[in-house]
Write a structure and sequence with these properties.
Blueprint lengths: L1 E4 L3 H6 L1 H13 L3 E4 L8 H5 L3 H14 L6 E3 L2 H14 L6 H9 L1 E3 H8 L8 E8 L3 H6 L4 H8 L2 E5 L15 H4 L1 H17 L4 E4 L2 H14 L4 E4 H5 L5
Parallel strand pairs: 1-2, 1-3, 3-4, 5-6, 5-7, 7-8
Helix pairs in contact: 5-6, 7-9, 11-12
Length: 240
C-alpha cells in the first residue's frame, strides 16, 4: 500500500524523530512510504488567526501537493482534522471543491490509519513503562478518534496504561489560544498534569505533539516527574 506522509511544520522543525519513527512503523506494517519534499503547511495557523485568503492559498498548495496520493498520513490529528473539516468551508462553491473533498477523504491520522485502514493493532513494540493517555481535542472531537490509540498501546509489551481523571478535558494549548489567553492555558495544563500525576505514570502519550509540546513546557518549568511521548515513538520501541 502506497502512503504519502504529511509532516506538520512543528514536527518537521522540533520533533523530526517522531516523523522518522512513523516511517519505521508504517514500513513494518507493509506500507510503501513516500514523502513529497514540496509540501509545506496545512494552512491551519493562518486560518485560526483569521487570515482566510492567506490560509486558502496554503491549503490550495496542500491540495495540489497531495492530489495523486493514495493515502495521506500525518502524526497530527489537529492537522488532519483541519483538512477534513475546514477545507470544504474555505473552498465552498469553488471549482476545486470536489478535489478538496477527495483529498480530505484520503487524509488520516497515524493511529487511526493503522487500525482502521491497515487493520493492524499489534506491531511488536516493547516499552517497559507506566503511562497515561491524553485525548487531544482535535483527535477526539474533530476526527472522532478515541479507541484506536488505546488499542495500539494495549498491545505494546511491558506497557502499563492507566486512565487519568477528566481524560477528555482540553490541555489548554489550542494553538493561538495559548498565546492570546496564556494564563487560562497554563491553568488548564496544570489541571491536566495534576490528573496525569495522580495515576503515578512515568509518561503521558498522545496523538498530537502540539498538546505534548504545551504540556512538556509546563512539566519542565515545574520539574515534574513526567515525560511526554507521541504514540509513533512508543510503537517504534523495542525492535530494530
Amino acid at each position: 500500500m502506497k502512503v504519502q506522509l504529511f509532516i506538520p511544520c512543528f514536527v518537521d522543525q522540533l520533533y523530526p524523530q517522531t516523523a522518522f519513527n512513523m516511517v519505521k512503523v508504517l514500513e513494518k506494517a507493509g506500507c510503501e512510504v513516500h514523502y513529497n519534499t514540496n509540501q509545506t503547511c496545512c494552512g491551519q495557523p493562518a486560518f485560526n488567526a483569521g487570515f482566510l485568503d492567506e490560509a486558502r492559498a496554503v491549503c490550495n498548495k496542500f491540495i495540489q501537493d497531495f492530489d495523486n496520493a493514495d493515502y495521506i498520513v500525518a502524526p497530527s490529528a489537529s492537522c488532519v482534522g483541519f483538512v477534513r473539516n475546514y477545507y470544504t468551508k474555505l473552498f465552498d462553491n469553488s471549482s476545486v471543491l470536489h478535489q478538496v473533498k477527495n483529498v480530505a477523504s484520503r487524509t488520516f491520522e497515524f493511529a487511526e490509519f493503522l487500525t482502521d485502514v491497515l487493520k493492524v493493532e499489534k506491531l511488536g513494540a516493547v516499552f517497559n513503562a507506566k503511562a497515561t493517555y491524553h485525548d487531544s481535542c482535535a483527535a477526539l472531537r474533530e476526527c472522532k478518534i478515541k479507541d484506536a490509540p488505546r488499542r495500539l498501546l494495549s498491545n505494546v509489551s511491558g506497557l502499563e496504561m492507566v486512565e487519568m481523571n477528566e481524560v477528555e478535558t482540553c490541555c489548554g494549548f489550542g494553538g493561538t489560544f495559548a498565546v492570546k489567553f496564556d494564563s487560562i492555558s497554563i491553568g488548564m495544563a496544570d489541571q491536566k498534569l495534576t490528573n496525569a500525576l495522580a495515576t503515578q505514570a512515568d509518561y503521558i502519550i498522545s496523538t498530537d505533539l502540539s498538546c505534548l509540546m504545551h504540556l512538556d513546557g509546563y512539566i519542565k518549568g515545574k520539574n515534574l516527574p513526567l515525560q511526554t511521548m507521541h504514540i509513533a515513538d512508543v510503537l517504534a520501541k523495542g525492535w530494530a
